[in-house]
Design goal:
heterodimer; A: about 425 residues; alpha+beta; four-stranded mixed sheet; 13 helices; B: about 400 residues; Butyryl-Coa Dehydrogenase, subunit A, domain 1; Butyryl-CoA Dehydrogenase, subunit A, domain 2; Butyryl-CoA Dehydrogenase, subunit A, domain 3; 3 domains; two-stranded antiparallel ribbon; 11 helices; 9 strands; about 15% strand
Chain lengths: ~425, ~400
């Protein structure tokens, strides 16, 4: 397929929006229109509700939607990771069953990967799936499951063969979360939020047709999900967001979208604080008068230097990618650098707030934002792959250093585990 | 001058880098660097002539009207990165970076002849700016210039002058006695009252001198400008170039260390397979790449004419200082005992890293300069909005710890 040029796309989306955008439509009806027209997910293939656009044309579409103040397809939560996984590994039946309702927002999804006994070593999962007739029977426990309490569907990684080596005995499923065998309990975090859940699965049922990919190929499918998760995390780190469209949000559709956001975005309200809020450091230092302290000045400068250099490193990676150059080391460093930035930011916020760093909630500076930073930063170097795993990845894949000797080869049932 | 900051080198810039790298790898392996650094002059005059004749290198950043190649600061920085990678001792830093930046910033017209003799490689210039006190806080500089007829007489002491003992011409920053403002002066090497003492240095690939002036005859080249803007720009450009040179050095240290960990076998395995080593290399890679991003960004910002160049220059210099020293320390540590020997090359870069850490201002000083620059821009925006600037104190110099 030949790719249309930016101006043509801009014209097309603009006139389509002029003809169709209606703030008084119902949210679901509007998003069904987006599905049918391909404007909801222009990066998806043409056969599946998209237009097969490359990233730069997708940006044009996003800009035009932003200009018009038009509501886009649902994007929050892990729905897009689910979609990416299904687009790559799902059958046509899977795609027909789930993709449309992902865009319309009617379904929400969760990711059932991590377990109490397997965090960094994700392939060590011990949740089991046993085939009984035409159904898989699932037993086990999952953890760190964002949005499990309101999700309709879960991406599930479970062990189907205990005699195969660790990575070869896993299979990938889509599980209906609304069934008696699935019990969801919120997991309260040290910062007081409960964005995650524990999921207890007892004799839950997955119909055989909801298996994604071949039996024993679950690890490869999960890798697709995780690759998209990392890519999206990079986007979040570089500060891209939906921007401020609030000012002219009026009409039924916006009210419905706001109500949806209240639920689906709730788990993420503290994520900016987790990253350290570098943006608040200088204003806080000036407002508090602490800017005169030479130590504050030094540590603030360190923070700003590191944070800017991190952004420029990401820009370098993108520029090299656009020029069609092979990826250099700069593309793999983002997550680890983000941990450094977050830790330095919490140090600076503490230096500025001094004794008030002991205070929480509305007694803490900025109505609790500072306290939330101090208590959320420890998550950044764990979630989505610990710093230690990131260092292994950089050393082994970027620097091509030899792998550690392994102690987890051979049949999974013989490997020591928690 | 493209007007916008770029994040990738052009094809032409990449070609320039490749050809210079090839040239330096051939002409300046560490065996040769070791010979040259122990010679009296500290650089290879014949090689410098070849750089001028074959590569037009001395005038790479000098305008074509002055006989230079007319490239931007980005190209100067590419050259610096390659010099840093090989440690090839040459007059490039003293002449084509420091002196060139000072002339272009403070004496674009009166310095034209000097610039063109730098560009051709004929003249080796050195910038004598810093003094025994005050790092790069210009207000602390004492050297005075007194008018006498057509010319001037300089009195004072200049410290840490790169190539100060070898250069044919010294560009001296001095305070005009009549108006107490700083200006740039030209002093010839044979001037009476000029005494140049080569300093003993830890990094013999970068020679420094103490320069005493006692009524030395000088020509006025140009004023340092309002708020020392010409000196600030000189320091910005030089710091950016130095940061890029440091990035070249740390990249080389990183590559050599990585190669060594793959070779070295202990406990029956390559030490590169130990997580303790892998994690250190991953962390070091981060610091090296952050320093590279900042150094390249600042170079591009200089060409794009960005107005917060002092902030960006100090950011790049402070990051590079810390990263280079870390790379040098890690390189020795991961080489183990052999890394501490004279025969192993690691110490050559360690010494350059230590020397560059403090040259043109310590990282602490540059971080303080970053914040001062931010405060100025905050002040400006506060003035605009008509609010009170708030309490400001003079305690800031306390940061020069």
């Amino acid at each position: 397929m030949s790719t249309p040029d930016r101006d043509a796309v801009r014209q097309e989306v603009r006139s389509w929006l002029e003809a169709n955008w209606d703030p008084d439509a119902s949210l679901i009806a509007w998003r069904n229109k987006l599905v049918d027209s391909g404007w909801g997910m222009p990066e998806w293939p043409e056969a599946w509700y998209g237009r097969g656009y490359p990233a730069e044309l997708v940006r044009v579409v996003e800009q035009e939607f932003g200009q018009a103040g038009a509501v886009t397809g649902a994007k929050a939560g892990i729905r897009l990771l689910a979609a990416a996984t299904l687009l790559e590994h799902g059958t046509d039946t899977h795609k027909r069953a789930w993709l449309r309702r992902i865009i319309t927002g009617e379904d929400t999804w969760c990711q059932l990967f991590s377990e109490p006994g397997s965090g960094s070593d994700l392939a060590g999962a011990t949740t089991r799936a046993d085939l009984r007739g035409d159904e898989w029977i699932i037993n086990g426990q999952k953890v760190w499951t964002t949005s499990a309490h309101h999700a309709n569907w879960g991406l599930l990684l479970a062990r189907t063969d205990w005699n195969a080596p660790k990575h070869k005995g896993l299979t990938f499923f889509v599980i209906n979360m609304h069934q008696p065998g699935v019990v969801v309990q919120p997991l309260k975090q040290m910062n007081g939020h409960a964005s995650f859940n524990e999921v207890f699965i007892t004799d839950a049922v997955v119909p055989r047709e909801n298996q994604v990919g071949q039996i024993g190929n679950g690890w490869a499918v999960a890798m697709t999900t995780l690759a998209h998760e990392r890519r999206r995390a990079d986007g979040l780190r570089s500060g891209s967001s939906d921007g401020d469209r609030r000012s002219y949000r009026r009409g039924r559709i916006h009210e419905e979208e706001d109500a949806e956001n209240k639920t689906v975005l709730a788990p993420y309200t503290w994520y900016p604080q987790r990253a350290g809020r570098t943006d608040l450091a200088l204003p806080q230092a000036v407002a508090s008068g602490r800017i005169v302290d030479p130590v504050v000045r030094q540590e603030l400068a360190r923070l700003l230097a590191m944070s800017s250099a991190a952004e420029w490193t990401a820009r370098r990676a993108r520029a090299a990618q656009q020029a069609g150059k092979p990826q250099g080391p700069e593309g793999s460093l983002g997550k680890l650098v983000a941990s450094h930035v977050a830790r330095q930011a919490q140090k600076v916020h503490t230096l500025i707030a001094e004794g008030d760093s002991m205070l929480a909630g509305t007694d803490s500076p900025l109505q609790g934002i500072i306290a939330e930073i101090l208590l959320s930063v420890p998550a950044v170097s764990i979630a989505g792959g610990t710093d230690e795993i990131q260092r292994n990845i950089i050393a082994e894949r970027v620097l091509d250093m030899p792998k550690e000797p392994r102690f987890d080869e051979g049949p999974f049932r013989d490997i020591p585990r928690n | 001058m493209s007007g916008t900051v770029t994040f990738a080198h052009t094809e032409e810039q990449a070609l320039f880098r490749d050809s210079l790298r090839k040239f330096l790898d051939t002409t300046s392996p560490t065996t040769r660097v070791r010979q040259v650094m122990e010679s009296e002059s500290g650089f290879d005059a014949q090689l410098w002539k070849r750089m001028a004749d074959e590569l037009a290198l001395p005038g790479i950043g000098i305008a074509e009207a002055e006989g230079g190649a007319g490239f931007g600061w980005t190209e100067v920085c590419i050259a610096m990165e390659e010099f840093g990678r090989t440690l090839c001792p040459s007059p490039f830093m003293a002449s084509s970076v420091l002196s060139m930046a000072a002339l272009a910033s403070m004496a674009p017209k009166t310095g034209a002849a000097l610039l063109s003799s730098i560009a051709s490689g004929e003249r080796h210039c050195a910038l004598a700016a810093q003094e025994l006190q005050g790092q790069w806080d210009f207000d602390a500089w004492q050297c005075t210039a007194t008018q006498q007829g057509e010319g001037w007489r300089l009195d004072g002491v200049k410290h840490l002058v790169v190539d100060g003992a070898q250069a044919q011409t010294l560009l001296v920053v001095a305070r005009q006695s009549d108006r107490r403002t700083l200006a740039l002066f030209e002093v010839e090497a044979d001037a009476e009252g000029l005494v140049r003492r080569p300093l003993k240095v830890i990094d013999s690939t970068r020679r420094l001198a103490l320069v005493s002036l006692t009524g030395a005859a000088a020509l006025l080249l140009g004023p340092a400008g309002e708020h020392h803007s010409g000196l600030e720009r000189t320091l910005d450009l030089a710091s950016i170039a130095l940061a890029n040179e440091m990035v070249g050095g740390m990249t080389r240290l990183f590559a050599d260390t990585l190669a060594y960990t793959r070779l070295r076998v202990q406990f029956g395995r390559n030490i590169a397979s130990f997580q303790a080593i892998k994690h250190r290399m991953a962390e070091l890679l981060i610091q090296v790449e952050l320093a590279r991003s900042a150094a390249h960004y600042a170079a591009s910002a200089a060409d794009a004419g960005m107005d917060n160049l002092s902030y960006l220059a100090s950011l790049a210099k402070s990051l590079a200082s810390d990263a280079y020293l870390l790379a040098a320390q890690e390189a020795i540590q991961l080489h183990g005992g052999i890394g501490f020997t004279w025969d192993n090359d690691t110490h050559l870069w360690f010494k350059r890293a230590k020397s560059s850490e403090v040259f043109l201002g310590t990282p602490v000083w540059h971080r303080e300069r970053m914040i001062r620059a931010l405060e100025k821009s905050v002040e400006k925006s506060v003035e605009k909005s008509g609010e009170r600037a708030g309490e400001r104190s003079g305690e800031r110099s306390g940061a020069n710890a």
